[in-house]
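quick one, 136 residues, struct below
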Amino acid sequence: MQAKTKIAVVVRDDLATWQRLNVTAFLVSGVAARFPETVGVEYEDASGQRYLPMFGQPVLVYAAAAGALTAAHQKAVERELAVAVYTEELFVTGNDVDNRAAVRAVPTEKLALAGIAVRGPRNAVDKAFKGLSLHP
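---
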């Protein structure tokens, strides 16, 4: 059964590999926190070892140049999708309080985005990310 909503992430294509992975991990944690219904149930192997639950729907990851990332962010906000942001400043902060302060200090149109994650109706997410390529 196909979900009615979609989770998608776009990271800036000029980031180091470790940064892309780090940004993706932080961004999707925002989706799980805001929308606990997106998370399935625990896994268990044949030996009875239990594992943490994960998203119950696919997560698509895209890569884009800074301008395309900014455009996708603007479209996502205009479509009133749930958006998580990761800005360049968050690479140097050391905790969540400083992270929130760093984002709060910059107006929307001037955010130096490293990546965004969105969740919303499938068609709205598709329109916001139209033209972006999946991460290689």
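The first helix runs from residue 17 to 34.
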